[in-house]
Each structure stands twice: as C-alpha cells, then as structure tokens.
Design a protein that fits this description.
The complex is a heterodimer of chains A (231) and B (597). Chain A has 231 residues and is mainly α. In chain A, 81% of the residues lie in helices and 0% in strands. Chain A is globular and about 55 Å long. Classes of the chains: A mainly alpha (231), B alpha+beta (597). At the A-B interface, helix 1 of A face helix 11 of B.
C-alpha cells in the first residue's frame, strides 16, 4: 500500500502544485488588486476549480495507466484492484481538497471581513469543494474503462457539459416541485441550489444523497477494475 | 540569389494566406465601418488603429508560429535532406513572414494616418504608433518563431507566443527597469518632441530621441537574438520536450501573467487605516481644516419621495490625531450650502458664501428658461457647544448671473471673497458680523489655446486680490486644478495634462503644457467611472470614483501614480489630504482614512 501511495503521489503531485499555484495565484492577485468585488473573484475561482479539478484529477486517474500500458502491471501486483482504486481515490481527493483549502486560507486571510464575512468565504469554498468531490466520483467511475487519456478527458468534458445543461434546465424550472428531487441528485446542487429554507433543509439532504451516489459510483468502478484484474 | 528565389517563392506561396487574412481583418473590416460612416455622416473616416493595435500582436504570434511549424513539425527530415543551407532556408522563411506581418499591419495604420486630417493629438498618436509598433511586432514575431523552432508543437508554441505578447505589453509599464520598452513612455517622450517643435512629429526628429532609439534598438536586439537562437536550434536540431504537464504550466502562466500585471499596476497600496461610521442617511459633503481644527459637513435628505428635495446640513468638529474622532453633530438647518466654507481668524467662526434667487417678475417659461439672477448671501456661523448661531448678510442689490463658489482671502481685518467674476470685500473686525465694504465685477478669463496647448489666465490689474489667490479662486472650482501652489496646473481626470507657469505680463499669466499622464489600457478598463473630484496638496493629486488614486506631480513633466486604493463596491469621494499625508474619503458607511502608499 505504501509503495502504491508513493507511486501515485510521485505521479500526481505536479497537479497539486499546479492547481495550488493557479487557484491561489488568482485569489492573491484578484484580492490584492480589488478591481472587481471579492465575491466575484472568489466565485470565479470556485467555478474554475469546479470545471478544472474533476477533469484534471478525476477523469485521468486510470486512463493514463492504460495509455502507457502500466495498468496491467499494476493489476498483476499482489494487491487487490480495490486497494489500487482506493489509493488513487485518496490521492485524487487530496488533489481536489488541498488547493481549495489553500485558496480558502488566502481568501479569509486577505479578504475576510472586508466585503464578505470569513464564514461566507469558508461556506463558498465548502460548497465548491463538495461539488468538486461529487463530480470527481462521477468522472472517476465513468472513465474507468476507457483506453486513453484523450477519450477520458473528452468523456469528462461530456459529463461536465451534461450536468451543466441539466442545471440550466433545473434553474429554468424556478423551484417547481418536480425539480426539487432532481436538484438533490445534481452535483451542482451545492453551489446553485436553493438555500431559501436554510442549510439544514437543503445542504444536508443534498450532501447525504451525493455521498450515497459517490459511494455507488465508486463501488461500480471498483467492480469494473476487479473484473479486468480477473481477466 | 538563384537559390534564394525559389525559397522566397515557396515561402510566399505557403504564407500569403496570412496576408489575405490580415488584409480582411485590418483593412476590409475597417473599410466596411468607413462605408457605414459615409452613409451615416457623409464623410470618409477609416479607423484601422483599434484593430491593428488590439490584434496586431496576435497576428505576429500566429504568423511566427504558423510560418515555421508545418516544416519543423512534419517535414523537417525532408528539408534537412535537401541541398539547401539550413540557415539560408530559415532566414528566407523568417524574413518572408516578417515582411508579410509588417505590410499587413503597417499599411492599414498608414492609411488611417493619411486619411486623418485632424492634425491634433490623434494624428500625432497614429504617427507614433506607426513608428514604434513595428519594432514590438518584430520582437513578438521573432520570439514566437524561435518558440516554434524549439517546441515544434503548434498549441504550445502559440501559448508561449501569447504569453510573450502579454509580457511585452504589460510588464514594461510596471517594472521600472523595463520602462525603456514601454510604448507609453516613448509616446510621452515623443509628445514632448512634438511640443518643442510645435508641429506634427517628424520621423527624423523622433528617431534621434534617446527614448525612441533605446526602445527600437532593444526590440531589434531581442529579435536578432531570437533569430540566432532559431538558426542554432534548427542547425543542431534542438527540441524542447513538451507534454501535458508543460502545457498545463504554460496555461497557468498564461492566465496568471495578465492578472498579476493588473494586480501590480492597479493593486491597492494605500492601507485602509480607519472607517468612521456616520448615520446611514447622512452623506459627508465637505471637510474643512486649518492648523487648529478640522470640521466635517454632512447633509441628510429629509424630504419624502416625490417632494421637492430638502436636506438638513450638519457640522461636526473632528480631531485629527492618530485616529479621526468626530464630535457631536450640530445642525445648520434645512438649507442648501453649496459654496466654500472658510474658517475666520476668530476661533469657532466660519463663513460661507451662497446665493439666493433674486425675485423675477417674468412669468415662468418652461420652454425657454434663461439663467435667473442671484444675489450673494454671506453667512457667518458661530459654533457653540451643541448648536450654531447663523447670521446671514444678504446683498440683494448685488444681483448677477455669474456668481460662483467663493474663495476667501484674509488680510488683517479685511476679508476678500472671489465669487465667479465678482470680488466682494468685507470688514471682519467683528468676526460674527461682517460688513460689506465694496463689490467689484472682475474681467477674468481662463482659456486653453490650441494648437500649442497653452493656458492663458487674464485678470484685471486693478484687482485688490493677489494674482495667485485669483488663479486659485478661479481654477479650484472648475475642471482645472492647482497642485501645491500656482506654479503647476493640471486639467482633466484619469488622463490629464500638467502645465507649468511660464511667464506673466501685466494682467496675464501663461501656463505651458509640460507633461501628460496617460493611463494604460488596463487602467482605463478597470478604473470605471473615475470621479472628477480632486484634492491637491504638497504635490499630491487625488482622484476618486470606484477607487482612490494618488498622483505625485512634484515634477509636472513626469506625473506618476504612486498610490491606489480600489474599492469596487463603493463610490469614493476625496474630502481632504491631512498634513501627515493621510487621505480622508467618503464611502457608503461614512468616512474612510487611507494611509500613505
């Protein structure tokens, strides 16, 4: 397990540095310049992270191994496929969470209490983080059988665009009763959903349902990888 | 030569598409706009410069990469196997692309220069662009060319080229060491050449100017070095490995570079020291200070929506220690106080000159409503502990249509007030009860003379008020400002000119334009709605709006922005610069105090 973790960390750490530099750099320069409202700067960073991170991390965790023909070697190791996927998932989650944490820290440090309360900034990043994690599991699962990095990225883009279209449709429904259950299934529910009835009435059910979906997707992905290991 | 001719023919055949695309974008599209203006206004005006300046660099990048990539990425081995010296092949390729770029971009700009008959700044500016931009494009083209030779992948080479373009456009204005490459700096310096020669810019004169010489030479050296590197890269088959990781990093730099440029150029460097809250509905209006005390005037709208607007004015004593402290508010009643307030030599007595409408026997005519005559009212305000005693002195026999905000000059027991073109003299031996001694109409004029951008201030020699006070009184309340004393004058906000007092004859003072502050494009983009309100002291000039900017104009030939406080959600109006350099401005909550940059 430790060797697997070391390998993943060694391969993926540039993404951690890249996302951290990118998001924290935009946060620092944007909040320093103050040419646009802090909320717009932080929201833009959140949207950029939601688009970029699942694609850069979730969609290309397994596919590059197939591309470079290292997956078979990996599966031939005396480790179960589930463990390999678990290690990749842990590293993926770290890659998604750490740059956001760093950016949130910069946001609170530079702009907390200025135009937004520190709690509002933290809340914004928590919601973005939850959306990113939800999309991460979708992309991880749906790209698990794809043979190459390019196709995985394209499918990841398709997933993103698909959810964006659904989100637009749900927004147009203006809170109609039929749309509410679908909102809870939407990874973007955390950032676009209606919080009129309070956080506990919306965020907690959405988080619970998204966690369940993520669990199911991960379970399905591990089954796919185990099947390949068996072959 | 026999070998070069087929090479040139090949390059021309492969690259002429760039010329056609350039001609469509930079010539045909502006021509369509010109046709529209012929139909709408009946005159031929072609504006190619916005297209050329905005997209010229991008075309240089596309050409620099596009001209070399097909050969080095796909058929390099074939070219190497041909009996052609690689250096000559590359040189022909480079020069063909460069000539195409320069023709594509310079011809439209030259066309606009030829059509532009205004002879004013726009024409001069165009000739400066035509002189300077080709060197910038050459450098951008050359660096993109060498990037393509080294990287040999289209997307990454274009990203590198665009990054270089952004760096060349945005870095020189903000890094003092690179200022020699700043187009703004050259434009400003050549502006002085034009002023000195009192004529349109002559290319020979411009080329001799050290600023232009250094600018052009530096870019030519950059281009030359890039070409040498490209030749070495091709001859020795150097190639930079590029992959997903390098593309991602290049993109990050590509995104962060302009943001960092904007942040450093426009970033807030004036710390917010204090926020002073005032009643929600009160708006700070004036901040009057002298050596002993400072006073804050605020007003509050008390009329209901739909009614004629009425507002109540309040005054507060302000302690300007390390922290600004406001005393209790004192009402000055429901009245419009729009002129200047001056502290009299006596403690706690203020003067304010306003005007009231004189009775008009004519019936109201909404179609044609000429300016109504007004008479001045001098109010002395005696501040007590928690109230104010206001004593008005109405001068109903002094009606006129051209009173202005007053400027007060104290001379012993006499107070002179310059209001518009009137000089009013008062005896203030009993400060709360001033008496009118005399009233004169002054023949004062201030005007900007073109084409040499000279400001001429004319005044009557028999005036009792010193000329410096007269200038101050007349220019302070117009779109003109004085910095420090009457030696320096400036005009305009955002983009402003500085004038120095040149010579004076009896009844006339001349100011010659010596400097100009032209904001960078990025400043113009982000500094939305700069508020035309200014404050000036000790060579400092401040402008408000959705930001506070502080300019150092101690050297009027080189005005520099030294401080900035951006507040995108607020409208800031500068009220005062305190003696220690702190800036007092308004915001939606009341007052903010900003520290020195």
């Amino acid at each position: 397990m430790r060797s697997l973790l070391w390998k993943e960390w060694h391969e993926q750490r540039w993404k951690l540095a890249f996302m951290s530099v990118l998001l924290a750099g935009i946060a620092f320069t944007g909040l320093h310049a103050r040419v646009i409202p802090d909320e717009t700067v932080l929201l833009s960073i959140g949207v950029l992270a939601v688009i970029l991170m699942p694609l850069l991390v979730g969609a290309v965790l397994i596919a590059p191994e197939r591309d470079s023909r290292t997956l078979d070697t990996l599966l031939a190791l005396p480790t179960r496929a589930v463990q390999i996927l678990a290690v990749k998932t842990v590293i993926g989650v770290i890659l998604c969470v750490v740059p956001l944490l760093l950016t949130c820290f910069i946001g609170v440090g530079m702009a907390g209490g200025r135009e937004l309360l520190s709690s509002e900034i933290i809340s914004l990043f928590v919601k973005c983080g939850l959306t990113i994690l939800a999309l991460f599991f979708w992309m991880l699962a749906l790209t698990i059988r794809l043979p190459g990095e390019t196709r995985a990225t394209l499918l990841g883009l398709g997933v993103l665009i698909g959810w964006m279209i659904i989100t637009l449709g749900l927004t147009e429904a203006h809170g109609a009763d039929w749309s509410k259950p679908i909102w809870l299934l939407n990874p973007a529910a955390f950032i676009v959903g209606s919080f009129d009835n309070g956080v506990s009435a919306w965020l907690l059910p959405a988080a619970a349902i998204q966690a369940a979906i993520a669990g199911l997707l991960w379970f399905w992905a591990s089954r796919q990888l185990s099947e390949q290991e068996a072959h | 030569m026999t070998l070069s001719r087929p090479l040139v023919w090949k390059e021309w055949a492969e690259s002429k598409t760039i010329l056609f695309i350039g001609a469509i974008v930079f010539l045909v599209l502006p021509l369509i706009g010109a046709l529209e203006r012929i139909i709408q206004y009946g005159r031929f005006e072609i504006w190619t410069s916005p297209w050329v300046v905005g997209l010229g660099g991008v075309l240089a990048v596309v050409a620099g990469v596009g001209i070399i990539i097909p050969d080095v990425a796909h058929r390099f081995e074939f070219i190497r196997s041909q009996p052609i010296p690689l250096a000559r092949w590359l040189l022909v390729k480079y020069l063909t692309g460069l000539v195409i770029i320069l023709i594509t971009l310079c011809v439209p700009l030259a066309l606009e220069c030829l059509v532009d008959h205004s002879g004013e700044f726009s024409g001069f500016y165009l000739s400066v662009l035509l002189l300077t931009l080709p060197f910038t494009w050459t450098a951008i083209y050359s660096i993109s060319f060498v990037a393509a030779c080294l990287i040999r992948r289209t997307a990454l080479s274009v990203i590198v080229g665009v990054f270089v373009l952004l760096v060349i456009y945005f870095l020189p204005p903000m890094v003092p060491a690179l200022e020699i490459l700043s187009l703004n700096r050259v434009t400003s310096d050549l502006g002085h050449v034009r002023l000195n020669h009192n004529d349109d810019l002559q290319p020979g004169i411009a080329a001799l100017h050290p600023s232009f010489f250094v600018f052009a030479t530096t870019f030519l050296i950059i281009a030359g070095l890039a070409l040498l590197l490209a030749i070495a890269a091709i001859k020795r088959d150097w190639q930079v490995e590029s992959n997903r990781k390098s593309i991602a990093w290049a993109l990050a730099i590509f995104l962060l570079a302009p943001l960092a440029s904007a942040s450093l150029q426009l970033g807030t460097n004036m710390p917010l020291l204090q926020t002073v809250s005032i009643d929600d509905k009160e708006r700070p209006q004036r901040f009057v200070q002298d050596g002993n005390q400072a006073l804050l005037f605020t007003s509050k709208v008390i009329s209901a929506p739909g009614e004629d607007m009425r507002s109540e004015t309040f005054i507060r004593r302000v302690t300007t220690g390390p922290q600004l402290e406001l005393g209790p508010r004192i009402s000055l009643g429901v009245r419009r106080w729009w002129g200047a307030f001056a502290q009299s030599p006596a403690p706690d007595v203020l003067y304010s000159l306003t005007t009231e409408l004189a009775p008009d026997p004519r019936p109201e005519d909404k179609q044609f409503d000429p300016p109504r005559a007004q008479y001045p009212v001098l109010r002395s305000i005696r501040l007590l502990e928690s109230s104010a005693e206001i004593i008005p002195l109405e001068m109903k026999d002094q009606t006129s249509i051209d009173y202005g905000p007053g400027e007060f000059v104290f001379k012993g027991s006499t107070m002179l007030v310059i209001s518009g073109k009137h000089e009013l003299s008062f005896n203030i031996s009993d400060p709360p009860h001033p008496r009118l001694l005399s009233a004169k109409q002054l023949s004062i004029s201030v005007g900007l003379l073109m084409p040499d951008d000279r400001v001429v201030f004319k005044y009557p020699t028999e005036c009792d008020v010193p000329v410096d006070d007269l200038i101050a009184a007349h220019l302070k309340w117009q779109w003109w400002g004085l910095v420090g004393d009457t030696q320096t004058l400036f005009h305009g906000v955002g983009k402003f000119n500085c004038y120095s007092r040149a010579d004076a004859a009896a009844g006339m003072v001349n100011f010659n334009r010596v400097g100009r502050y032209a904001p960078l494009p990025i400043e113009r983009y982000f500094d939305r709605n700069p508020f035309p309100q200014m404050s000036f002291k000790n060579g400092l000039l401040a402008t408000g709006g959705r930001q506070v900017s502080l300019f150092d104009v101690t050297d009027p030939s080189n005005p520099r922005r030294i401080g900035h406080y951006a507040s995108p959600l607020e409208q800031n109006e500068i009220l005062a610069i305190l003696p220690d350099g702190r800036v007092v401005a308004t915001n939606s909550k009341g007052l903010i105090v900003l520290g020195k940059p």
